[in-house]
Amino acid sequence: MSIAAPPAETAWLMTRVLGFDAMEEADLAAVLETATAFAEGELAPLDRAADRAGAHLRDGRVVLPPGFHEAFQAYAEGGWVGVAAPAEHGGMGLPEAVALAAFEPVSSANMAFGLCPLLTQDAILLLEEHGTADQKARLLGPLVAGRWTGTMCLTEPQAGSDLGLLRTRAEPEGAGYRISGQKIFITYGEHEMTENILHMVLARLPDAPEGTGGISLFAVPRFMADGTRNAVRALSLEEKLGIHASPTCVMEFSGAQGELVGEKHRGLPAMFAMMNAARLGVAMQGVAVAERAFRRATEFAAGRIQGGGPILAHPDVRRMLLTMRALALGGRMLTLGASLATGARRALLIPVAKAWSSDAGVEAASLGVQVHGGMGFVEETGAAQHLRDARITPIYEGTNGIHALTLLRRGLLRDQGAAVSALLAEIASVPSLAATAGAVDGAARFLRAAEPRVAEANAVGFLEALGTLTAAWHCARLLRHADAPPAAADAARAFLALILPRAARAAAMLHEPPPALLATGAIL
Known about the structure:
With 524 residues, the chain is α+β, with helices and mostly antiparallel strands. The protein has helices at 7-17, 25-53, 68-77, 96-109, 111-130, 133-145, 267-303, 315-340, 343-372, 374-377, 383-390, 400-413, 418-428, 434-449, 452-457, 459-478, 486-499, 501-508, 515-518; strands at 56-58, 61-63, 148-153, 169-173, 176-187, 196-203, 216-221, 232-237, 248-261, 305-306, 309-310. It is globular, with a radius of gyration of 23 Å.
């Protein structure tokens, strides 16, 4: 059984439902078929053994599981690192949405492996948008070719998600800077799959103001142009619940040489190019693990005999499996739809896609364990690994609670609800969704009129309602097509029957919360 969604189905969804028109459907399907074949042939066989082996730090070197080095070289040689990079720098020059769709089978096959090329692609995007002509000429080629990889160095031990508290310093020296400080949770911060690693580091200049307005962005290589080692190293690797094969590093910069990217004190806006791309990638990880968990659970249910026949025939098992498939489909269309959107609609949907799809991945993976029963709770079947791996996705690239606040403050309150109202008006034009759209609109009006802490207390519920409704809208649009792939049509009907009612419930639950929720003291 395949580990990922059918490429032809995804190509159909993108071109016929989501309005992707930069490529012919057949050409898009061919790209996705090649990506899926690579993922199934090269990456999936490594997944379980890599989870057991993990990544380890030995004498300053990060040792990755067997096969990862060769797999990354094959991935790079296939051009997949630069799938959306400009042709002038060695890339394929395909749209971002194609790269995102091609990333799904990679994450289905081996989520821990996929994190490395994901961040490299995002570093490429950052440099395309904010690098100087000279930086693009020097830095993009090795990244696009997969000779270098990229990292995103934001978080510090004392700061967490509050980047205004970061302490990493950047001291001017000649034409460059010396970077000093410690960063944590740095994915693939050290490894030996490539000849170099380019760290994208947030730090403060000596004259920087306090808060996020005083942060600058620097490119810091592991090795300098002359081959000497820069003053950056991995101090330790985190012991994690899942994605064991992905090295999550504590990185120390001890006067490392770096160069400014973008304007001084404007590092955070520049880094958002990388962060938003990564958020869409994490959303797709949620989709990928939901799809993979569904396919594993379906295969198990077909062969598990209980009560005189396979448990696949039992209505409650079918309910769980259809819910998993529906969550994957809804998340896929929500995520790809966000990547294809522009302007205010894109800004509105990125936090929704990241949070909703990653939560969906965890739910689907948990249901996959349930379908397996006791065999899911042990490691033999692989169902538990999906749940362990998926659990990070609602946390990294901004916790889902933070994305709910982003939706509230930037997506709803900043423009007096214009972007949300425009989306809901389109959804309400579908007769079967009009009542739910009205309920979500009422929730939006409640939040706009509420006191700030009351609105914040309800932000997660509003994101759930808006995300569920938007995904249902895509499902309803899918079902308008008589030639919809049968499996996708079944999943869309399951979404409307099993998942859509959650939107109205979430909207109805927005209310004046109990005093204990609004208080700031201890909860005893």
